[in-house]
């Protein structure tokens, strides 16, 4: 199981692409979020939309769904197939009505299902996305009154959607659920109003920090290298082997 971030930037970053990930298991590719920069970021890594076996969406913000219109049009008019789209059942209606319908709908009868093979997921249970890759959606707080989900892959890998700091959840994942690797969004500067900020993440106990890898950061990320406690930055476009036992070694951290 491999992960390659198409981008590791915040919504407003310009030096980094949107925080979207490509997970590859036995040659099958699952795109986690498809933001505004995803079409070009995929192209730059040598992928076409047709190389994707499924897309999974965490929440409705442009840095996570802004590339879906181009993806849908290319899949329909160039590749002639419907891509599999996984998302929380609670997001299906709003993704179409409030985001995609205006651009995609050409005939008033068309719906999201005309463009995607929609697979609604209910939170709190594991679903198989492709053989060898399961996900459990965990509802996490981001913007008041806005649904957003974090992802627990194969029971050991927690990938935060955009979320506010929640030490209790991270402690529980490590202590009671066997989570070994945590990719977490990180706003470098306080206050952490809609994202966890670095000073908050630095209050996590060492045994949790050692599992945390930071993403969704701003353009001045370089100034923070060496100032992230026991946590490390994920680099965009670099492929990492997601073996729970040896993951840390790719950062020069021996366990
Ligand atoms: O109440 C709010 C709502 C939004 N925002 C900004 O808009 C961005 C939208 O994408 P994002 O969720 O990656 O990050 C968000 C923040 O940068 C904010 O600062 N406060
Ligand atoms: Zn975001
Ligand atoms: Zn967001």
From TrEMBL:
Q: Origin, by domain of life?
A: Bacteria
Which segments constitute the Metallo-beta-lactamase domain?
18-216
Among Pfam families, the record links this protein to: Anti-Pycsar_Apyc1
SMART domains assigned to the protein according to its UniProt record, in alphabetical order: Lactamase_B
Reaction catalysed by this chain? 3',5'-cyclic UMP + H2O = UMP + H(+); 3',5'-cyclic CMP + H2O = CMP + H(+)
Q: Which GO terms describe its molecular function?
A: hydrolase activity; metal ion binding
Kindly give the InterPro entries that the UniProt entry links to this protein: Metallo-B-lactamas (IPR001279), RibonucZ/Hydroxyglut_hydro (IPR036866)
The record's annotation in PANTHER family points to: HYDROLASE C777.06C-RELATED, HYDROLASE C777.06C-RELATED-RELATED
Relate the protein's function as given in its record: Counteracts the endogenous Pycsar antiviral defense system. Phosphodiesterase that enables metal-dependent hydrolysis of host cyclic nucleotide Pycsar defense signals such as cCMP and cUMP.
Task: State the protein's name.
Answer: Ribonuclease BN (tRNA processing enzyme)
- In its UniProt entry, the species of origin is given as Cohnella lupini
